[in-house]
Amino acid sequence: MSAAALVGATDFNEDHFLSMEFDCVIAVDGGYASLQKAGIRPDYVLGDFDSLGFVPEGDEVECFPAEKDESDMELALRLAREWGFGLLYLYGAFAGRIDHTIANIQLLARYARKGSSLVGIGDDFAITMLDGKGANRIRFKEFDPCKLDGAPYGRFVSVFAYGGTASKVSEWGLKYSLCDAELSDDCSLGLSNEFCGDEAGIRLERGNALVVFSLGALPHMEVEHC
How far apart are CA 204 and CA 145, in angstroms? Predict the structure, then answer.
């Protein structure tokens, strides 16, 4: 599956970005400055550039008005999907202003429903969304969770219902198992399950669930579709 990286204006995990390979890199407004600082030339640049403070030059730059209904990240996601990328990594999108973070979580839900696999990259965590009608399952290959010890998120993986009840949620290969459970979006059930080293997975059949885990577990993750 072809992969694209979308780089937003907040905290940029440069080390993780440089450890990855992408078919396309899109700078989203102030994300251009993060990439420029790292010596990376994006394939495309878009935004209203209120965060960046200037409009970059070049044919690969698209400027939008500041007064619009979509965020710059939403515009970038739409473009990446139009270009046919099924696996999207979002950098610089889940830190800084909490309202922008919430908006980007909303976008995770929308594009999981459309069948795209989105992974948000934080300073030491990864975040993704499952949707019963689209990207509804993730699997982790066997790995040694001791390598995660000492990291802020450690061995933990948390699953939260989003936007209503998540139905028939199953978790296996983790310290605590679930089988066809219901998770509501008004409780903390789903917080801090743990990797044990076995092959593990999380699946749901209806609704949405937000999954948060240590960035060190990401290389072992695979997203599957119903």
Answer: 24
